[in-house]
Specification:
MetI-like fold, mainly alpha, elongated, 280 residues, 75% helix, single chain, 0% strand
């Protein structure tokens, strides 16, 4: 059996995180072909119903099935999170690797630009972008991706700098390889595990940010369901139907917890130094 799988079977946090992530992704995939009821079907006569055999998690203030909207909301969160992290990771890894390879003013400029972006809270940047461009899922993706760029740039730069002083990098330089070739064939393959772990963590941050923007009315717009918007709609009926806030809140907490546990587990399993510490 693969050594990674052997270690993974012994890592409880990794297993729990993987199970929660599979449930999350599985729910989103199922919603593509089936939901108990149409997620945007209005039934005013059936509004604020409790859980029943017809509506497993009840209905909201417009008579829409809560379970169906949770399932489609998972799809929204995955789409926004994946695209935002992919965009931020692509730009951030390229900038971080370039700064580590070139050094001098390029490295300094990247560091100062990252400090400038980190000086502003992510939500504030997202509000600024969506206020200028308009509230939509696409602009929420752009806002979240922008904040991810300096995160991945710093992680890539730090991990790459530890490699540029190694003997095998010096040997590649002596053989005539340029900075681009060394980065592509020697540096990036050796830091991919660090990037995978960071991407998992940033995916959780992106889902949380998307829920926050939707709660503020700056994310996915109706009739597209979003967990954050479901929380916003539920606050008016918190005493009359508190479960309307419980279900989306539980969904957000479970997914973020699962992704964080998965990220921590991957860090333990992929980092040889941490594996030695665990064994010791």
């Amino acid at each position: 059996m693969n050594p990674f799988l052997v270690r993974a079977r012994r890592h409880v946090a990794f297993q729990l995180g993987a199970v929660l992530l599979l449930l999350f992704v599985g729910t989103a995939l199922v919603s593509l072909v089936w939901t108990p009821h149409p997620y945007d079907e209005l039934q005013m006569r059936a509004k604020l119903l409790p859980s029943s055999s017809t509506y497993f998690l009840g209905t909201d203030h417009l008579g829409r099935d809560v379970l169906s909207r949770l399932m489609v909301g998972a799809r929204t969160s995955i789409a926004v999170g994946l695209i935002a992290v992919a965009l931020g990771m692509s730009a951030g890894v390229a900038l971080g690797a370039w700064a580590a390879a070139r050094g001098s003013w390029v490295d300094e400029a990247l560091s100062r630009a990252s400090d400038l972006i980190f000086a502003f809270p992510a939500v504030l940047i997202a509000i600024l972008i969506t206020s200028v461009l308009g509230a939509s899922a696409q602009n929420a993706v752009l806002a979240i991706a922008l904040f991810n760029v300096p995160v991945f740039a710093r992680v890539t730069r730090g991990a790459a700098l530890t490699l540029w002083g190694r003997d095998f990098i010096r040997a590649a330089t002596a053989m005539g390889r340029g900075p681009f070739g060394i980065t592509l064939h020697h540096v990036l393959p050796n830091i991919v595990s660090v990037l995978i772990v960071q991407a998992t963590i940033q995916f959780a941050v992106a889902i949380l940010a998307e829920a926050g923007l939707s709660y503020l009315g700056l994310g996915a717009q109706p009739p597209l369901p979003s967990w954050g918007r479901m929380l916003r709609d539920a606050q008016t009926y918190i005493f009359q139907a508190p479960e309307l806030a419980i279900w989306p809140g539980l969904a957000i907490a479970s997914v973020v917890l699962g992704l964080n546990m998965l990220g921590d587990g991957l860090r333990d399993l992929l980092d040889p130094r941490l594996r030695l510490l665990r064994v010791g």
